[in-house]
């Protein structure tokens, strides 16, 4: 640059800018490759949302988004999601139906603790002829007590046994006998057990698969939250910039990038969508237990909105996990 007549001071300022960019900038080839992946993903999510969901579920574990988040988002975008069913489901999730009306049938891979070899035996036995009962399933697929209890907990036996409690009872009774007694059958009357209520089903769903096809847990708490002037994400989205706001949701993601100078970004999820929360470093230290430990987090702060970019800048954090009762949730934490 000096040979071309530029001043040394100007040349050094240009090199300093290039050096600064080099600390975080991507090479052009990497940026172009990433942009292509983002474009293709966005196109699929917009035009083929069922296929997009199916592919994302079958690629787990991955990235920021858990199966629960993916399913909740798909349901909000009118994708029909069908439950795990031992008479239909495979190991992987798959599309059921044709064209734009296709539904997503959840796969047995989503059941926590389920073994792929057990699922393979179920698929092989089912291909010969449909299962007639839980006993038939247990014997022909050679399932043990653990397999059957996992399927019952996931409500995957409902087509053969009724509600979840009846399925669990039959699963325990259906464990195949060994040796000489294997070919025998039990002649006993099955008890009629009351079906679990919605809250109990949701707790069981999250414990078994980490997601639910019932209502979102926050829908059951909405009346109580509304009494505290804590409103849903869909209502907050209509707020003008600068308005005081209260939010509450299940913590799905915590991010604290090294380049953010201590700022913590939290994503909350309720029955209507997601809320992006910004927590300044001083507030993280003041509410450290709530920020890093709460499963259900209440946030009091100021709503910021610029175009389509919307987030809640926190002034106060409240751990509201107790409202979830026995519901076990998890978040993706990136620090």
Automatic annotation (TrEMBL):
One of its GO terms (biological process) is DNA replication. Signal peptide: none annotated. Residues 248-317 form the OB domain. It holds the Pfam family HHH_6. Gene3D superfamilies: 1.10.150.870. CDD domains: DnaE_OBF (cd04485). Residues 78-165 form the DNA polymerase helix-hairpin-helix motif domain. GO terms for molecular function: 3'-5' exonuclease activity; nucleic acid binding. Belongs to the DNA polymerase type-C family. DnaE2 subfamily. This is Error-prone DNA polymerase.
């Amino acid at each position: 640059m000096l040979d071309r007549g530029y001043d040394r001071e100007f040349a050094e300022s240009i090199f300093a800018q290039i050096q600064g960019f080099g600390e975080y900038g991507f090479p052009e080839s990497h940026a172009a490759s990433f942009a292509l992946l983002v474009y293709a993903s966005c196109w699929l999510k917009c035009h083929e949302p069922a296929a997009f969901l199916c592919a994302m579920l079958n690629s787990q574990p991955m990235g920021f988004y858990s199966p629960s988040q993916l399913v909740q988002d798909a349901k909000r975008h009118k994708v029909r999601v069908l439950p795990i069913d031992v008479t239909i489901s495979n190991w992987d999730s798959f599309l059921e139906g044709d064209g734009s009306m296709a539904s997503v049938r959840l796969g047995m891979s989503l059941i926590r603790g389920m073994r792929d070899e057990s699922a393979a035996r179920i698929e092989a036995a089912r291909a010969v002829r449909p299962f007639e009962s839980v006993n038939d399933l247990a014997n022909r697929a050679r399932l043990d007590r653990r397999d059957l209890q996992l399927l019952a907990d996931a409500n995957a036996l409902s087509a053969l046994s009724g509600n979840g409690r009846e399925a669990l009872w039959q699963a325990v009774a259906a464990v195949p006998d060994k040796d000489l007694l294997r070919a025998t059958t039990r002649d006993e009357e099955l008890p009629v057990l009351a079906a679990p209520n919605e809250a109990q089903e949701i707790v069981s769903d999250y414990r078994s698969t980490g997601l639910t096809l019932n209502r979102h847990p926050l829908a059951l708490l909405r009346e109580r939250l509304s009494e505290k002037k804590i409103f849903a994400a869909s209502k907050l989205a209509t707020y003008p910039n600068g308005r005081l706001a209260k939010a509450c949701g299940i913590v799905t993601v915590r991010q604290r990038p090294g380049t953010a100078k201590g700022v913590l970004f939290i994503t909350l999820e309720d029955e209507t969508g997601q809320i992006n929360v910004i927590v300044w470093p001083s507030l993280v230290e003041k509410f450290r237990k709530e920020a890093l430990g709460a499963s259900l987090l209440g946030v009091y702060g100021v709503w910021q909105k610029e175009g389509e970019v919307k987030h809640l800048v926190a002034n106060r954090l409240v751990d509201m996990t107790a409202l979830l009762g026995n519901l076990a949730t998890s978040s993706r934490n990136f620090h």
